[in-house]
Amino acid sequence: MTLQLPEPVSQILLQLTNAGFEAYAVGGCVRDALLGRTPEDWDITTSARPEQVKSLFRRTIDTGIQHGTVTVMMGREGFEVTTYRVDGEYLDGRHPREVSFTPLLSEDLKRRDFTINAMAYHPDQGLVDLFGGARDLEAGLIRAVGVPEERFQEDALRILRAIRFSAQLDFSIEPETLRAIAAFAGRLQLISRERIQTELNKLLKSPHPEKFRLLYETGITQILFPRFDEMMVLAQNNPYHCCTVGEHTLRMLTHTPPEPVLRWCALLHDTGKTTTHSTDGRGIDHFYGHGKASAEFARQFLRDLRFDNATVEAVTTLVHYHDYSFDMTKANLRRAICRVGEDLFPALLQIVRADTLAKSLYAQERLLPRIQQLEEMYQEIQTDKDCVALRQLAVNGRDLIAAGMQPGPHLGQVLNQLLQLVLEHPEWNTREILLEKWKSLNV
Ligand code: ATP
Ligand code: MG
After folding, report:
1. How far is CA 40 from CA 18, 31, 43, 322, in A?
2. Is 96 touching ligand 1 by the criterion CB < 6 Å?
């Protein structure tokens, strides 16, 4: 078994070994290399103490010295070198009370979360695989190292890590491990929102976002996202739909490009259906105003998960407008672009398409040709450089003042009125015409 290591990694291993220490590539990079994927970063584990690592290399950074991690700089690239360690007692389900160093590689591997993440490799020693990680990699299984209940009790974040790895790698979760996940789901309450956000983000942008279903099946959504449980049982008796709101959401995720903003929008786009549900005299379900209701829910949900403002705004806007009417004239389309924002509009088209692909065949037959038309019209608007924003208007505040208008807040209103005219008649977007129009607005 030979793995291709990057030159600087081989160099670090060699230098540590020559100085009489043990050293291995370890964890995610070994897993990814075995899978034939390019690892994002290479972590090294060693019997050398941090001070010893620092004395062996010219340039190092104390990244997490209290946890035994030193970053070794090789050219411009940094590599984390961590001393073999065991985690002390976990008292709070989140953090080990203390970490201590150990001379044994086996102890270091034992503290790791899953068998596929607990392998080490050295060019001379080959693969060190104490828990059957290679076998599980072959079988496509996420299996806890040791007793699953104990491992999830120690650190509840591992519950989410298991599911996100299963989504990233398209692996199943080994039954004992899965049972323990369900049993300890409640412990996720102990985990910080930031760390939950990171894991959910990785899960959603993975090649298998539909594995989100596992969060429902193991009772995790009940803790982190109870609204989703309601969605999973909310039927939609409507010719445009073929399944519950939750099932539709999971389907839509698979049709959505793997961009976090788009995937979060897909996840949250129908969250407002639970509060806007009505049934008409013919027994057909409706969800009037659910775009707005979903946007309100999404904003709060993303804020609670400590998302940055830009992400919250982008997702919320897309959610709000995802159900835009399809019977659009070109002028209406320009107005929609103006309202949603030019930057975000292409994303909205992707959302509308993904949403439709997750609806009934009846809906797809009716809506897909219209979406196609919408996309073509959008292209024309782009090509013709039609004005769809204030900053593209042929006049600005200074022009109006130069033409005799008093400065003040009124200026903005006039510019907006002119913009509305131009959205309807793009050919009016010249200085001459607009100043003319402004005079007629004035009378
Ligand atoms: P990726 O970087 O792709 O998310 P990874 O496996 O490299 O995946 P990291 O979070 O970078 O994951 O962690 C590196 C290694 O540290 C893991 O492979 C695993 O061996 C160990 N590890 C990380 N987090 C935990 C944890 N919560 N419990 C136990 N071991 C962990
Ligand atoms: Mg990693």
Report:
1. 27, 11, 10, 34
2. no
Burial class (CB in 10 A: 0-12, 13-18, 19+), 138: exposed
For residue 235, how many other CB atoms are within 10 A of its CB? 12
Give the residue, by CA position, lying nearest to ligand 1 atom 5. 28
Mutate to test the pocket of ligand 1, among 112, 142, 151 (most ligand atoms within 8 A of CB): 112
Q: What is the pLDDT of residues 397-416, one digit of tens each?
A: 999 999 988 888 889 999 99
155 in ligand 1 pocket by Cβ < 6 Å? yes
* DSSP label of 238: S
Element (H, E) at 331: helix 330-340
Q: Please identify which residue in the block is written with the tokens 């005799």.
A: 404
Quick check: CB of 87 below 6 Å from ligand 1?
no
Ligand 1: nearest atom to the Cα of 154: 28
Three-state SS at 92: coil
- The amino acid at residue 390 is L
Q: Is the dihedral of CA 14, 16, 17, 18 positive or negative?
A: positive
DSSP 250: H
pTM (predicted TM-score): 0.94
Cα(240)–Cα(252) distance, integer angstroms: 14
Phi-psi region of 219 (alpha: psi -120 to 50; beta: other; left: phi over 0): left
Residue type, 188: L
Of the candidates 267, 286, 266, which has an alpha carbon nearest to the alpha carbon of residue 275?
286
191-225 pLDDT, tens digit per residue, is 999 999 999 999 999 999 999 999 999 999 999 99
Which residues sit with Cβ closer than 5 angstroms to ligand 2, an ion? 28
Distance CA 351, CA 314 (A): 12
- Contacts of residue 106, defined as CB under 8 A and 6 or more positions apart, other chains included, come to 130
* Paired tokens of 417: 């009125």
Residues 322 and 271 sit within 8 Å (Cβ to Cβ): no
Q: Which of the listed residues 32, 105, 113 should we mutate to test ligand 1's pocket, taking the one with most ligand atoms within 8 A of CB?
A: 113
307 phi and psi angles, rounded to 5 deg: -70, 155
CA 276 to centroid of ligand 1, rounded, Å: 42
